[in-house]
Every structure is written in C-alpha cells, then in structure tokens.
Amino acid sequence: MTAALPGRARDGAPGRPHQRGPSTVLLRNVYYMLAYAFKALETGEHRRLAAEDFEHVHDMLAAILAGGLDNQRRRGFERDYQPFSEDLTVVRGRIDPAATMRLRARRRSLVRCGYDERTENTLMNRLLKTAALRLILHGDIAPARRTRLKSALLVMGDVEVMSVGDLRQLHWDSLRFHRGNRSYRLLMGVCRLVLDERLLSGADGAVSLADFLDPQELSALYERFVLAYFRRHHPHLRAGAPWVSGGIEDAPVFLPGLHTDIVLTGPERTLIIDTKCYGRILGSRYDKSILSPANRNQIYSYVMHEASDPRQSGREVAGMLLYAQTAVDPPIRETWTETGHRFHVRTLDLDRDFTEIAVQLDDVAALLVDEAEAEADVRSARLGDEDAFERAAEADLLWYDVTEREALAESLGV
What pLDDT digit, counting tens, does each position of 209-257 carry? Predict the structure, then answer.
C-alpha cells in the first residue's frame, strides 16, 4: 500500500479527524448536495443561494422554498386533471344514475355529475404549501425569509394543506417527474426534509445530515451527489451506474445482481466507485484497525466481473471505495494492487468549503486521465524533490499540475 496522506483537523493538527459527528457538513454544502442530486443547477436562483450564508438549516430550506415558489409562480404551477362529483341543474361530464335516482326520490331536480377538471391542487403543490406553512409557523428562519414565504403562498389560495394523516400515508417514492415538472425535484427533496420533522442544527452553523435523514436516505443522497458531480463536471468520463454482468453465465434467478454506484469510463481505464456513508469506516479486530471485509469483497467482485466483460478487453479496470469522512476515523488515501488490478480507498471530507470538496472529487477523476506512472513523481514533487518536479512537468496530467504544488500540498495537509 502507498502511504496515506495526513489530514488536518479544524485546528490544523495533522493526522487528526474533525471533532464533529459523522457526516457533518457545512450548511451551504447541504444545499450543494441537494442541488446536484436533484439536478437544480441551471437557475440563477441556485447561483444566488450558493453565495448566501445561513445560520440555521430551517433558514436554508426556507430560502430554497421561497425561491422555488417564486420561480414556479412565474412559469406556472403544475396543473393536472382531478375528478369532481357535484349535484347540478344541467349535465356536465358523466351522469351518476344511482345517485341521481336518489336525488329524485327526495324530490330534488338535480343531476349527480362526475367530471375532470384541471387544477393546481396537485399532490406536489399541496406538499409545497404544507412545507412552507410548517416553516413559517415552527421554523427558525429570518424575518425577511418568513415574509417572503408568506407572500409566495398568497398565490396558492386554491391549493389545500395536507393533514398529518395524509403525510403519514404518503409514499415519497411514488412522486413522478417528467420534463414538465422537473423543476419540482429539488423542492420535493426539501419538502421531505421539512415534513419528516427530523431537522436538527449543530453548533456554529453546521448541521448533521444523519439527524434528519435515515441511513438509507443519507447514503442515497451522498451517492446521487457524487454521481451528479461527475456527470456535470467530467462529462468525458461518461459517469453512470450500470449493472455488472461480465463473467456470469447460466445464473439462477435467486442470484443477486451486481448494481454499481458509479462507473467512470476514461480513454483507457474504467473506475468503479462504491460510495459509503456510515458512522464508522474502519473496524477493529485483534486490536488492529481493518477495512470492512464485506466492502472490500464487494468492490473486488465488481472489478473482477467488469474486467471479464469483453468490452473491457485491453482496458485497465480499477475499483474505489469512497467513504464520507467521519469524526472517528482518520483521513484515508490508500492504493494497492491485487490480482493485477488497482484498488483505492479514499475519504471525502464534506465538512469543508465546497471548493475543497470539488478538489477531492476532481482528484478522483484524474485517476482516469493522468499518467499512472507520474503519481510517484507528483508525490515527491509535493515534498520538494526538484528532479521529480521537472519530470512531472513533462507528464500528461489533469489534476496534478505541479505549478499548483504549494496550494495543493496545503489543501491535502502535506
């Protein structure tokens, strides 16, 4: 294994993890993760919000909802057909014969009609209004934000508020998005966080995602964020999440499929990334810290099956476990070779400014573009080896730009 690069705690001490809890992130980074995961990066509202500082998670969510409501008001709220039933003096839509006969039996000259009508009282609009009211009444938000939310709700007079019973019966996965309502994706994610009532803020402007997302939701958000980042900033790597089927023949129906989290495809190499967002990264066995055998075997299986696919003939297939940095484990950056394939274990520190998070992810993308042979020279150049500096300057590198040696070394704690 290569030596792990030392990390830095908030106080600058090398090799120490952060003091906050697992999966703790800066509030602005929560917004970035949601925006990437729900593909809401094309609007001017995103650029404005990304530049703001929020003191409380409620305030951040209120800002997203207020901006989203204003945006939907300008473009028009979602409308859909809903069934109505009404007693009328003239026929409209379909007649309900049985109900009409009962009306006639009571000497009422009315016709029971059923018809469909386009209305803004759709499920997603009801969720928007309910979440906004919840923040207005109970959220810790700035007065100006509260006023903006109230103004935005004035145009939703025909939209009903959902009851507690309706919310408990709601299946969030049943929401369907298409080209006509894709602007609701981020807003529905925010509504879910608000209405699930699992928000909890931490000290000095931080919020623990684990406090208002269950482990599966948190892992899914982390996975979707990383995948969306590579798709947006590294489209040439064709980021995807395909099923791996190479080397499997005559599989029985009960054999589980191999569904990857992220696969990056470079000019000559393929990198399979398995994202992990847990409370602990390293376990303990016989007083020794070890990586989870299950996680190691999982990424090994992905790589070996993908390497046996004829489409990967002549290409290098590698694997990576990308953990969200925790407070109880040190930063990890390890690489080793096993059965002819390179494997990596890295941690992604979400408790930093987003520009530093982007540096960490771009460093992963560089594995598919940079000359692998130059890695040793880059490491030596970071430590001041002038000869290695000159050799690295001649290499074909994406991220390891030796002209940025000092800034890079500082960001990595070297």
Answer: 444 455 666 677 788 889 888 988 888 899 998 988 777 777 788 888 8
Phi then psi for residue 338, to 5 deg, are -140, 125
Instruction: Tally Cβ neighbours within 10 Å of residue 360.
Output: 20
Alpha-carbon distance of 287 to 252, in angstroms, equals 40
Strands 262-265 and 111-119: unpaired
- Calculate mean pLDDT across residues 350-360: 82
- Count, in order, helices (H) and strands (E) of the chain: 14, 14
* Model pLDDT for residues 148-174, shown as the tens digit of each residue: 889 888 888 889 999 888 888 888 878
Q: Using an 8 Å Cβ cutoff, are 146 and 136 in contact?
A: yes
Chain-centroid distance of CA 229 in Å reads 9
Residue 414 burial (CB count, 10 A)? 15
CA dist list (Å): 64 to 20, 59, 82? 26, 9, 28
Q: How many CA atoms lie within 13 A of 363 on its CB side?
A: 21
- Spatial distance between the Cα atoms of 207 and 309, rounded to a whole number of angstroms: 43
Residue 374's Cβ-count burial label (10 Å; 0-12, 13-18, 19+) is buried
Alpha-carbon distance 260 to 249, whole Å? 19
Q: How many CB atoms lie within 10 A of CB 367?
A: 21
pLDDT in tens, 253-267: 888 888 899 999 988
- Burial (CB < 10 A; 0-12, 13-18, 19+), residue 330, is middle
pTM of the model: 0.61
pLDDT for 2: 33
Of 197 and 94, the one with more pLDDT = 94
pLDDT in tens, 298-342: 999 999 999 998 888 889 999 999 998 877 788 899 999 999 999
Query: Where does residue 88 fall: left (phi above 0), alpha (psi -120 to 50 degrees), or beta otherwise?
Result: beta
